[in-house]
Amino acid sequence: MTSPRRVLVTGASGLVGEGVLRQMLHDDPALDAFALVRNEASWKSVAARLGPVVSRVVPVRGDMTLAGMGLEPTVRQRIERETRLVVHAAADTSFSRSLDHSRFVNTLGTYHVAEVAARCPRLDRFVFVSTAFVAGRSTGTILERDNGCQAGWVNAYEQSKYEAESTVRASGLLWTVVRPSTIVCRGTEGDIPQINAVHRALRIYHRGLAAMIPGARSNPIDVVTSSYVSSAIARIALDARAIHKTVHLCAGSGALTLGELIDTAYEVWAESPDWLKRGVERAMIPDAETYELFERAVMETGDVRLRSVLSSLSHFIPQLALPKVFDTTVAEVLLDSPAPPVSSYWKPMLRRLMASNWGQTAQQVAA
Amino acid sequence: MTRAESNGRSTPAIAGISYVFPERSRTIGELAGDLQLNSSASTMESFGFGKVHVAVAETPYELALAASTRLLEEGGVDRDSIGLLIYGGTPGSMAFAAATDAEDAARGLCTMSRFKYPATRLQYDLGLHNAWPFAVDQLACTTLLAAARIARSLCLTEGIERALCVSSEFFPANAGREAIFNCTSDAACAILIERDGTRNRLVSATNVTKGYYWDVDAMRDEIVASYFPTARHVLLRTIADAGWELGDVDWIIPHNVSARSWEILSSLVRLPRARLFSDNIVRHGHTLAGDNFINYRDALDGGCIQPGQRVVLFSYGFGAHWTGVAVEA
Q1: Number of domains composing chain A
Q2: N or C: which end of chain B has fewer CB within 10 A?
Q3: CB of B224 less than 8 A from some CB of A
Q4: Residue A213: pLDDT above 70?
């Protein structure tokens, strides 16, 4: 495929969007970009990190939750005229939002972006950054396609992204849906660009505020690095073979099991004599029913802090009890190689997490 | 054959158990109405609690004396044969005060009254002239299990023929009746340990104390979180130390914390044959003094536990101790 003149990237202030933008500008010196900017301050930080290539980016103020992405008419006309490729990465990725809020941002927002894209006469591709966890409560092998919604979802984020995928598929655009797994660090060195729900959950267990994780030791738990996801999207966006394809950007067969992830975490934490001295018991892995019994008992009592801890875990942790393996056949054909195995970065990530006191020292905690 | 027998050593055993509850009891609804619970009555009832026993006129010492006297009389025990008296529970001068006077009595701990010891007085009142009296403290609800373990060890190492262990606890009037989601009773429980027993032999005893949780106010949530994995660990270690397999255990004799928590713990431990004797949770609530032995006595009297069956007693002491004892009935 010939390089597009301009790419429109939404969510460029986010982890994936910024990474994709940087990678695409790096890979193709002829490429220019529009970056949809909702928050000026966030964009200034991104711009500073991008360095010289930022001169090829036109920031455009807008808001995808508004019709026409809230763009000024003249700006919108220019975007429609020049855009050859859209990478829609903007989303509210919080697991704890209400369904109404998640739909408002993720589903309606995607509808508005697709609507603008449909008015771009030279558009070659609409790449939608979804999530592997649109699979929700499904178990087993998850294929790279629309697998339906019969199983339901663990949280509103998953549901809103599934519904957004449906919007994209019905848009009539030349779409590609990419589904990254949960990002835990930047690369195999384990540095953590942004603290997320996984890191916060690990902190709860490290502090001994929770000691049960539902599931089974053998359940595969899929996570990935942001560098893999960004470079994969940058490549797939320019690959004509990916049109009307759904692509899992997941560890797949390189995932570790829940037991392996937990064992490694407690091994790394035990490297600290202060932590070891506490005698914090290793978290158990009961079945989902036992965990729910414990959760219900706590929720029925008046203990505010403990309820808050379990509530924060509840938006995410049930997923661990739903064993699934993400098929990555399409991804591996398009990218020629699988994602880095989780074993190559899980331990370095844990060490960095502990060394930075969960981002406190590096001010990495996401707002 | 137990491991203790195979080593050619005698196995100390529980020769008797007796307990006393105060005269007055209160329902969960009544406690909630008097703001004696942190949680709602319906929550406590859903956790399996029905009523608790409340000492009003009785002092902890009087309860301890009554339980011990009953034990010695029931068994027709030769008092001169008792070489050890271990007291656990309400300390010093507080043991001689009723609940309403507990605060005044506590001030006695800061005066020369601190030398008024319930263990010493029990030795005199019970006529146990040969008994060495002392107290165990700071072990909360594991106190009587710890006393049994100490008595077992001293019977083996010093040849003591019989040891009387007695624990008596009450909640002061202003302390409320709920301790980490459990409704508490006042009670006293006495047990007699014999050096050479044939029934109810103390096969093994295991304790894990986690000092990190010493500040129970600050670490309350961490304690709740750590309770289950540590309890599981101690239960499994108690069984292993007894030389038993998981499938060998016939009964778990619990401390009377919420039935819900035992449901969770049972699911986590998964002993294939073991039954849980939980009848007393609704009847008595949780006593600091000796749930396990009160329950063991009732399970024996009710014909639940048969001779030779393998039983594990488990309790958690707030502050933070997890204790298990393996008994061959």
Answers
A1: 1
A2: N
A3: yes
A4: yes
Does pLDDT of A364 surpass 80? no
Is residue B217 classed exposed, middle or buried when 0-12, 13-18 and 19+ CB atoms within 10 A define those classes?
Answer: exposed
Structure token pair of residue A38? 């909702």
Q: Which residue of A has its CA nearest to B232?
A: A284
Question: What pLDDT was estimated at residue B171?
Answer: 84
Which CATH architecture group holds B200-328?
A: 3-Layer(aba) Sandwich (3.40)
What are the E-state strand segments in A201-287?
Answer: 220-221, 223-225, 245-249, 256-257
> Residue A365's pLDDT is what?
43
Mark residue A311 as left, alpha or beta (left: phi above 0; alpha: psi -120 to 50; beta: remaining).
alpha
Within-domain flag for A22? yes
We report the CATH number of the domain holding residue A230 as 3.40.50.720
Domain with CATH 3.40.47.10 in chain B: 13-194, 200-328
pTM score, two decimals? 0.89
Tens of pLDDT, residue by residue over B170-197, are 887 778 899 888 999 999 999 999 999 8
| Mean pLDDT over each residue of chain A, to the nearest integer | 94
At A298, phi and psi to the nearest 5? -70, -40
ipTM of the shown complex:
0.86
CA of B184 to nearest chain A CA: how many angstroms apart?
A: 16
Which residue is closest to A206 within chain B, CA to CA? B222
Strand residue runs (E) in chain B: 13-20, 24-27, 51-54, 82-89, 132-136, 162-169, 178-179, 182-185, 187-194, 201-209, 251-253, 275-276, 286-287, 310-317, 321-328
Inspect the interface and report whether the beta carbons of B226 and A280 lie closer than 8 Å: yes
Boundaries of domain holding A38: 6-184+222-254+324-340
Please report the pLDDT score of residue A361 as a whole number: 65
Look at A286 and B263 and tell me if their CB atoms are within 8 Å. Answer: no
pLDDT in tens, B81-137: 999 999 999 988 899 999 888 888 999 999 999 899 999 999 999 999 999 999 999
Q: How far apart are CA A174 and CA B46, in angstroms?
A: 57
- Which chain B residues in 288-327 lie under 8 Å from chain A, judged by CB atoms? none
* Contact check, Cβ <8 Å, A208/B225: yes
Those of residues 198-237 in A touching chain B at CB distance below 8 A are 207-212
pLDDT digits (tens, 9 = 90+) for B225-254: 999 999 999 999 999 999 999 999 999 999
Q: Which residue has the tokens 């299990």?
A: B145
A213, part of any domain:
no
Answer yes or no: CATH 3.40.47.10 is held by domain B13-194. yes
Residue A282 located in a structural domain: no
Which DSSP category does A97 fall into? S
| Spatial contact of A65 and A164, defined as CB atoms under 8 Å apart | no
Whether B168 shows a pLDDT value over 90: the answer reads yes
pLDDT value at A18 more than 90: yes
pLDDT at A302 over 80: no
Shortest distance, CA A206 to any CA of chain B (angstroms)? 11
- Is A276 an 8 Å CB contact of chain B? no
Distance CA B195, CA B201 (A): 10
Mean pLDDT of A86-99: 96
Asked if residue A198 belongs to a domain, the reply is: no
pLDDT at A1: 47
Q: How many residues in chain B?
A: 329
Decide if B228 and A284 are in contact by the 8 Å CB cutoff.
yes
- Nearest of B122, B165, B131, B135 to residue B14 by alpha carbon: B165
